[in-house]
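Deliverable D2.4 — example input (structure tokens):
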């Protein structure tokens, strides 16, 4: 285990002091339990298996059992160690160092979520991370942009622009960073992305897609018209959406208390109060999929 890199990443990405202390303490416990080489082996295995988290999971679970370190904390240590070769590849590709560390700040955001929801300094969503180690995502301002292809069955047409199945697009992700999420912050992020991918775009618009609970159209009934979530949904042309029997993203709204009956959910924020009222009334939540075309200055398709 590379403790110097562990410290470097946590410092560069702004980990809370308590999280740093827990990670370093847990790294020491792993070493004392003779599991340091096992963690290094898990990282090597992960890369050999084409970044397959599912195949790597039994190795991480075994390390947790042998060391007594919480599973989510072992995942955190693993994800940080696995970031070392990825950081080097990002830099080799010419991605500015500040963008690389900004991208890996996602680990900080998730460690805060894990503490809030699970009560542990760690990571409980390791399945999300392969795209970071394949170097297919960057954080540019408020938003993250992932390299994917357009997977809808039919082309998307807006004016003179047609997006066909298989065309390269950017999938937008919204990390829980606590940064401003207003229209100005989002436009700044789209502009940064347009500039970052300018050579690739060759004068064409930046095409973004987003598949998220934030784009569920009925959020406009749940939340205030001045909500940044509602504003964000207007950035995209939502072309399909679905309702869900369960509110799968409830933990994002209600934190550690998300599994309580609707009547017992917390009401500490306006968003919690709005969603609680909706759920108490027996109404469903959902998700939506949208497309955004950006020409470097403005959103074209809204």
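Example output (designed residues):
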């Amino acid at each position: 285990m590379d403790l110097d890199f562990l410290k470097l990443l946590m410092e560069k990405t702004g980990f809370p002091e308590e999280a740093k202390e827990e990670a370093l303490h847990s790294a020491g416990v792993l070493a004392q339990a003779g599991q340091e080489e096992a963690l290094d082996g898990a990282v090597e295995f992960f890369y050999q298996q084409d970044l397959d988290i599912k195949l790597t999971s039994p190795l991480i679970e075994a390390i947790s059992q042998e060391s007594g370190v919480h599973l989510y904390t072992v995942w955190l240590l693993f994800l940080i160690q696995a970031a070392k070769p990825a950081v080097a590849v990002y830099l080799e590709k010419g991605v500015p160092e500040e963008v690389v560390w900004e991208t890996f700040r996602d680990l900080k955001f998730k460690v805060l979520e894990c503490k809030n929801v699970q009560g542990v300094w760690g990571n409980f969503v390791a399945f999300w991370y392969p795209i970071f180690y394949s170097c297919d995502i960057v954080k540019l301002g408020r938003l993250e942009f992932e390299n994917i292809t357009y997977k809808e069955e039919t082309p998307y047409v807006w004016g003179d622009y047609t997006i066909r199945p298989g065309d390269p697009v950017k999938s937008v992700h919204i990390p829980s960073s606590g940064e401003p999420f207003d229209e100005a912050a989002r436009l700044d992020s789209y502009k940064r992305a347009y500039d970052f991918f300018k050579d690739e775009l060759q004068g064409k618009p930046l095409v973004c897609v987003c598949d998220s609970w934030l784009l569920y159209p009925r959020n406009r009934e749940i939340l205030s018209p001045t909500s940044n979530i509602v504003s964000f949904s207007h950035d995209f042309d939502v072309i399909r959406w679905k309702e869900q029997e369960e509110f799968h993203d409830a933990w994002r709204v209600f934190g550690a208390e998300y599994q309580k009956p609707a009547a017992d959910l917390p009401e500490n924020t306006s968003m919690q109060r709005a969603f609680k009222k909706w759920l108490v009334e027996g109404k469903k939540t959902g998700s939506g999929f949208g497309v955004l075309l950006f020409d470097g200055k403005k959103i074209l398709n809204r």
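Residues 71-92 form the longest helix (22 residues).
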